[in-house]
Design goal:
By secondary structure, this protein is of the alpha/beta class. It contains 8 helices and 20 strands. The structure holds NADP nicotinamide-adenine-dinucleotide phosphate.
Length: 343
């Protein structure tokens, strides 16, 4: 069989699976050519805490499971400096450490992990065909655990100066702003948590919030109020990020007084909310009005064989602790679903 797909090949994947686990294959078309693709019991889109937990449960339950992750495993949690509210770690645990441990644990039971971004999901009878970057597999069940991504505010200068002072990840970029002044936009958990983290490096951190009360949880608010490096600019919105080759300042407007002013800063971190990553689903499952996947209590979506877990689904609380519960439930529900197919 010739398995070449553009510059890439799915042959190594087929061979490896065949040698170790005796994978089944299904004939599919890629780029107009008929070929065989590996057939999995379960495909997990997303390698954050929800996806990795689903992977652990599924692989341990002996399901042939493939997980795809577009960045490093761990999702949003992996870019969190210290996770303080995940039980079992009294001193907290760095996000990357928790992510690596979760991945190692799941792989120990045979979870396969590939790097890539899913862009294709199509029903084929009672199977699903899933694709990414020229590769395709078929699977009997899918768990959507793709999580969320930062919302862009869309003000002038934001896109132009991205990576040159405009950032969405304090853990990644905070150390570049040692002894400098930084703006953090937003008033939720992310904004306040990351502003607190940024005080490790920055000289001054301005939290710029559009109203006069923070949305963040009380413990974070208290820490921010007590931190001498943090100043909160209430009732204030950003009209523009200014600078030529890097961020030089923020043009601000007070929404109560309509006063405008320029705040000199060297960097700005946007935390104005998150949006679910669901585009690849192409309408296959029902979403709510904000784009989150609607599931029942067992993580089943509106489409047969597709389950969702973690931040991507409609739910009250988006935390690592709730994501892992979702992941475990989704894997168990998927297993039940697969049993029902074989009866
Ligand atoms: P969020 O809770 O949706 O907060 C977004 C913030 O941005 C809000 O304060 C909002 O203002 C502000 N905002 C939204 N649109 C804006 C606009 N156009 N202009 C100016 N400001 C705007 O998002 P998040 O903070 O990223 O949190 C998302 C989820 O992750 C939450 O469930 C949160 O609990 C969780 N999370 C938890 C932790 C933790 O436990 N430590 C850390 C990070 C995230 P308003 O308040 O006026 O709406």
């Amino acid at each position: 069989m010739d398995g070449k797909v553009g510059a890439r090949s799915i042959v190594p994947l087929l061979n490896r699976r065949n040698d170790e686990n005796g994978t089944f294959y299904k004939t599919i078309k890629i780029g107009g050519r008929v070929m065989e693709a590996p057939e999995y019991d379960l495909f997990i889109a997303g390698g954050g805490p929800a996806g990795l937990t689903a992977g652990l449960y599924a692989a341990r339950g002996k399901l042939r499971t493939l997980l795809i992750e577009k960045m490093a495993p761990g999702g949003q949690a992996a870019s969190t400096f210290l996770i303080e509210n995940y039980p079992g770690f009294p001193e907290g645990i760095p996000g990357p450490d928790l992510a690596q441990a979760m991945e190692k644990q799941a792989k120990r039971f045979g979870l396969e992990v590939v790097s890539g971004e899913v862009n294709h999901l199509v029903a084929k009878g009672n199977h699903w065909e899933v694709g990414w970057e020229g590769q395709k597999v078929t699977t009997k069940a899918v768990i959507v655990a793709t999580g969320v991504e930062p919302i862009k505010l869309g003000v002038p200068g934001e896109e132009e100066l991205k990576g040159r002072g405009v950032s969405y990840c304090a853990t990644c970029d905070g150390p570049f702003f040692r002894d400098q002044d930084i703006g953090v936009i937003g008033g939720g958990d992310s904004a306040v948590d990351e502003a607190l983290f940024l005080t490790r490096f920055a000289r001054r951190v301005y939290i710029i919030h559009r109203r006069n009360a923070l949305r963040a949880e009380k413990i974070l608010q208290d820490r921010a109020f007590q931190n001498e490096k943090i100043e909160i600019l209430w009732d204030t919105v950003v009209a523009k990020v200014s600078g030529k080759t890097g961020v030089e300042g923020l043009e601000l407007k007070n929404v109560q007084t309509q006063e405008t002013r320029t705040l000199p800063v060297n960097g700005v971190f946007f935390y104005v909310g998150l949006k679910p990553i669901t585009e690849f689903l192409g309408g296959a499952v029902k979403l709510d009005e904000r784009g989150y996947v609607i599931t029942d209590v067992n993580m089943a979506t509106s489409a047969q064989g597709i389950f969702a877990a973690g931040d991507v689904r409609q739910k009250l609380l988006r935390q690592v602790a709730t994501a892992v519960g979702d992941g475990a439930t989704a894997a168990f529900a998927a297993e039940r679903y697969l049993e029902s197919l074989s009866q």
